[in-house]
Amino acid sequence: MREFNQWFGEQGWRPQAFQKECWKAYDQGKNGMLHAPTGSGKTYALWGGIMQEAFQSKKHPNGVQALWLTPLRALAVEIQQATQRMTKDLIPDLQIALRTGDTSQSERAKQKRKPSFGLVTTPESLHVLLSTKDHQKQFQHLKVVVVDEWHELLGTKRGVQVELALAYLRSFLPNLKVWGISATLGNKGLAREILLGPTENYTTVNAEINKKIKVKSILPKNMESFPWRGHLGIHLLPQVLKLVQKNKTTLIFTNTRAQCEIWFHRLLDADPNLAGNMAMHHGSIDKKIRLWVEEALREESLKVVVCTSSLDLGVDFSPVENCVQIGSPKGVGRFIQRAGRSGHRPKAGSAIHFLPTHAMELIESVALQRGIEQQQIEDRIPYLNAYDVVLQFLMTLAVGSGFHPKKILPIIQSTFCFQTLDNERWQWMINFLVKGSQSLEHYDEYKKVTVLEDGSLKVLNKGIAMRHRLSMGTIVSDANLKVRYQKGGYLGTVEEWFVAKLKPGDVFTFSGRNLELIRMHNMEVIVRKSKSKKSRIPAWMGGRMSFSAHLSDLLKKALFDQRNQDTPEFKALAPVFRQQLKESIIPKPYQFLIERFKTKEGFHTVFYPFEGYAIHEALASLMAYRISLMSPITFSMSFNDYGFELLSDQAFSKEDFLDNNLLTLDYLHEDLEKSINISEMARRRFRDIAVISGLVFQGFPNKPIKAKHLQSGSQLFYDVFKDYEPDNLLYQQALEETFDHGMERGRMTQVFENIQEQNIVWRDCSQPTPFSFPLITDRIRSKLSSESVEDRIKKMYLQLEKVGQ
Amino acid sequence: MKRIQINENHFDLHPSGALYWVEKKTLMLADVHLGKVAHFRKNGIAVPRKAEGAFYEKITLLLNEFEVERILFLGDLFHSFQNNEWHLFSAWVKQQQSELILIEGNHDVIPAWKFQQLGITVTPDFKEDAFHFSHFPSEKGENFVFCGHVHPGVKLEGAGLQQLKMPCFFQSQNQLILPAFGAFTGLHILHPKEGDRIYVTSGKEVVEIDKN
């Protein structure tokens, strides 16, 4: 302890109470969970304990003793530097290494020859380490695993990866300590149980740091011209520019990479003086450029950085004074995280400006402010029975040392995710790996995992092993292509489907530059700089996020609570509300509003339950399904956080809808299941599952390897399973995930109970209302039909290719 | 089914994706991709085996429906290297009365002599009367071309923002591209120009589509 106090003193710091508490608990050999926000000194709270333990042993064996898992590569770099700094001063002999997807082959080989005391890595890279033959020997001296930002991993399939890795490590390291670091969650207890397992030997430490967060909406001077829809918010650029000029450093958060590119350009156009003082940061930009931006932020040499969630986490940017959020952050947790980027020093306050991109988002701004006042972060719903992840994990073991099914099953069952895994489904999975989920027939040549004489399962085929190693990891993305200049110089990656739309000579905007496509070659996009003003902006698929249930609750309260009428946001909204009231209403808590109007696109029926995106997606399918039972009809559906829209070429009647009581609680679950099957909501879920479980092999942009005749899309697999093998567990998983994660099964009944208490208000309008506008203009849609394909085809037509396209 | 006329000859567009040349009693199939499921399975990717069986059922129905003297495969008959699917295929070939011709496609990596041993004629392309038959589209020569390779599909639009992607027979000025006959093959969406004629197939019906 003395050494630490001294070391802290040398840094000009004083150990905080929660840090001392952690050191003490660690010294007592406990597992634990530390709840602390980023920038509070949480890294040293745990690394201190680890150092103290290291002090006590005179000799250090050749092997990793402390493993630190982080969700982001950028964060891993940060942690490695911080821990190395402390270690160098206290025990200079010990090294801390970094191992992520960016780590070079030679560095990996070096780490294997001469393992360091500490290793900072990501869940994916840890699994890569477990795929080596001698991993048990490599980790034999491991004493502790720290899982950083656990709230970011929990509720994702990467969280399941962590669960599996920890259960597996514990199986041969009975004395392994596990510590988690997490933001304060609603379901704290569950978060701890999932990470630490069923142990009684644990401590929970709360860092009581109440950072003050100030939220201010950026309001237009004139509300009459404020758009009813949109997602760019460019009309408020002058106000943002003023904020940028006023502050030393500003971070501008956008929700999508496309938005990020556009804002970067428009800011530069508006104030050319910013050239050289501004930068962009998103996940598709080359690592070197990203690291440079992060470094420049720390050195206070940048005036403004436009970024996406790639800068959300942990990374410490103390000099940032000011944050701007463009559009809805889709969750209180994320908003607090982003606000936390400013004033990033212990106890310093944070400020964030919220820029609504359309009128309805002003209500959201009020909701966010209320959420922050209550210091609530959404619960994270952990995955159950993620068969795709466990199949990947079994393959990981099978390409390395192999595994015994009887020995590995209890280890898997000890995780939260697979606690209910029974023998039948386990047999299915083993059968999937060994026989391709069929019964054995002479004719079949299925080959993946082989049963050896001693009963262990192993991959013998080199091609299969190699493909598995290349596709490990649960984060799924479209095939990415490298973007580079003809003369050399790597700019980043762009998703394949975007480039596929371009022809040589086309100009697109990337990484803040206008680039002309020369050609595509070997998974690379070759470009040159262009002076053309007109260009296309790539969109990235990951762009769409769902609203959290928690925020939708706050949203309803914000709209209904009379006290909010005096906020600047609601005052600004007055003209929009006046327009809404001309033909419709602003629903009260006891009213369920349905609007109907006709445009040249067809008949729009818009419902406003205010229950959040996920619930609305399921509700839209359910309503479309129930209506489609009355007579053959085809719907195109859109949804947002306020409501959903059913669009059809024929109008179903108000009387039929009301008389048949289509909002009933009866047969809710049966109908939901059928509507999920028909509307194919599960199709999108299956995309991830197909990649994670190894059905779809993507290859890697920087390792373009040949997979001759083995390429196939997940959609094709979905169809084949649906038609020929509907009891396939991976197909079933897609349906179950839609229930559990898409719509939060339990909440749906509650929503319907609420609706039973409400009065249905059906309004026929002559034109779209302001509330409906973001919905009817949304082009990302689902469909549901009870007409035959042939009948539908006969009503449809072809869009001819336009000249010059 | 839909009957069309080209150069005074008649052709039936069948909902299965097959094309029947009435005057010559010839059945044409493009992109069957036999053994694709087996190839995936052999490489550790568990596609349900049943997905492969569809070919023999479909072609038996066609042979009952039409009077066939000759079957013309417009390339990509097999998806990849030889695997057990070959045995099923040879057994089927031995039962056939018709003449069998394979126009080689880019996926046809099984050596030609193996097909020839079964009595199948293998050729890079094929000409008869004023018609040219090939795997790849090539709208150059004077003759009307029948081909495959593309797995053509189109995107349909309708009122109420409806959209649908469907496989089709794609007819342009001097060429007709057949849809892929094989199951588990996927679609490539084409964008028709003025003058192109599109016959969408749902598996049950063939429908000519209007342009907007």
Can you walk through the features of this model?
The complex is a heterodimer of chains A (about 800) and B (about 210). By secondary structure, chain A is of the alpha/beta class. Chain A folds into 4 domains: about 200 residues, P-loop containing nucleotide triphosphate hydrolases (Rossmann fold), CATH 3.40.50.300; about 160 residues, 3-Layer(aba) Sandwich (Rossmann fold); about 60 residues, Ribosomal Protein L25, Chain P, CATH 2.40.240; about 210 residues, no CATH class. Chain A is built from 31 helices and 27 strands. Chain A has a 7-stranded parallel β-sheet, sandwiched between helices. In chain A, strands 8-13-12-9-11-10 form a 6-stranded parallel β-sheet, sandwiched between helices. In chain A, helix 14 links the parallel strand 12 and strand 13. Chain A is globular, with a radius of gyration of 27 Å. In chain B, the strands form 2 sheets. In chain B, strands 8, 9, 10, 11, 12, 13, 14, 15 and 16 form a 9-stranded mixed β-sheet that branches. Chain B contains 4 helices and 17 strands. With about 210 residues, chain B is an alpha/beta fold. The longest helix of chain B is centred in the N-terminal third of the chain and has 16 residues. Chains A and B meet through helix 19, strand 23, helix 27, helix 31 and strand 27 of A and helix 1, strand 11, strand 12 and strand 17 of B.
